[in-house]
Design a protein that fits this description.
This protein is mostly helical and 269 residues long. Helix content is 70%, strand content 4%. The chain has ten helices and two strands. Strands 1-2 form a two-stranded antiparallel ribbon. A hairpin with a 5-residue loop joins strand 1 and strand 2. Helix 4 packs parallel to helix 6. The radius of gyration is 24 Å and the shape is globular.
Length: 269
C-alpha cells in the first residue's frame, strides 16, 4: 500500500511548481490559485484516502497570497511540514501570511535589482561586441540561478520546518501569535502609507476677540489621530470582507463610485 507520508522529493517538486505560481493570478486573491496549485500534488498524496479533506485543504489555500515566486517554496515547505505534524491550520495560516511580505521584499530585491541588472549588463556588452553568447548567457544565467533559488528555498524551508516542529512544538501557538502580530503590523503600515484619503472641509470659528479663524477639519483629525480616515476606510473594507463576505470586485466598484461621488461633493480630496 502506498504511503501518505511526504518525502523530500515531494517538497522539491512542490517548490518547482513555483514556476506556475503566477498562472492563476487575479485581482480577487492574487496568487491564491497558484499557491493552492503548488500544494495540490502533495495534498493529494497526503489525503489520497479522503477526498473531502483534500477539497477542504485546497479551499483553505485559495485565498489572498502574494510574494516573490522564487522564494515561495520556502513557505510551501514550511506549510507542508507543519501540516504533516498536525499543526492547526490557523497557526499555519498566520505564519504563511507573516512570511509572504518579507520574502517578497527579499526576492524582488535579489531578482530585479541584483541578478537582472548584473546579467543583462554582461549579456548586453557581449551582444554589442557581436557575440551570440550575450543573450544565451543572460537566458541561462537567469533561469539556472532562479531554479537553484527555488530548490534551495524549498530545501531550507523543509529543514527549518522539521527543526521547528521537533524542538518548538509546545511553543508553536506563541510563534503563530507573534507571526500574526507581525502580519497585522505590516498590513497596518501599508494601510496608513498607501491609502490616501483626506477631507478639504473647513469651517469658520469665532474667536474671543471678535475675529474669525478658518479651521481645517483634516488638521483637527490629524491632531487627534493621524491617518484616521485611511484606517477607518481599511476597517470598512475588512468588515465587508469578513462579515458581509463581499468579493474584491464589489469592493473595487464601491471604492470607485464612493470616490467619484464624495470628490464631486468636495467631501474628500
Amino acid at each position: 500500500m502506498a504511503s501518505n507520508q511526504l518525502t523530500k522529493s515531494d517538497y522539491l517538486k512542490t517548490g518547482l511548481r513555483a514556476h506556475f505560481l503566477q498562472n492563476g493570478f487575479n485581482y480577487g486573491n492574487y496568487q491564491g490559485l497558484g499557491y493552492a496549485n503548488m500544494l495540490y500534488p502533495a495534498l493529494r498524496k497526503m489525503y489520497r484516502d479522503d477526498d473531502d479533506k483534500l477539497q477542504e485543504a485546497l479551499k483553505e489555500n485559495v485565498e489572498f497570497f502574494n510574494t516573490n515566486l522564487h522564494f515561495s517554496p520556502f513557505i510551501t515547505s514550511l506549510h507542508l511540514v507543519m501540516l504533516e505534524n498536525g499543526t492547526p491550520t490557523s497557526e499555519i495560516r498566520n505564519i504563511k501570511m507573516a512570511l509572504m511580505g518579507p520574502l517578497a521584499g527579499i526576492g524582488d530585491s535579489l531578482v530585479q535589482f541584483c541578478l537582472a541588472p548584473l546579467l543583462s549588463t554582461i549579456g548586453a556588452s557581449l551582444a554589442m561586441d557581436g557575440m551570440m553568447m550575450g543573450p544565451i548567457l543572460f537566458f541561462l544565467g537567469m533561469n539556472l540561478t532562479l531554479l537553484a533559488v527555488k530548490l534551495l528555498t524549498a530545501s531550507f524551508g523543509y529543514k527549518l520546518g522539521t527543526s521547528i516542529v521537533a524542538t518548538l512544538s509546545e511553543k508553536m501557538e506563541q510563534i503563530s501569535n507573534v507571526a500574526s502580530m507581525i502580519g497585522v503590523t505590516v498590513i497596518s503600515g501599508l494601510a496608513v502609507n498607501f491609502v490616501k484619503i483626506s477631507t478639504p472641509l473647513k469651517y469658520v470659528a469665532s474667536m474671543p476677540d471678535n475675529q474669525e479663524k478658518v479651521v481645517a477639519i483634516q488638521e483637527m483629525i490629524d491632531a487627534i489621530a493621524p491617518r484616521l480616515l485611511p484606517v477607518l476606510f481599511t476597517g470598512l473594507m475588512y468588515y465587508l470582507i469578513k462579515v458581509k463576505k463581499w468579493t474584491t470586485y464589489k469592493l473595487v466598484i464601491l471604492t470607485v463610485v464612493a470616490g467619484i461621488l464624495l470628490s464631486s461633493l468636495h467631501l474628500i480630496g
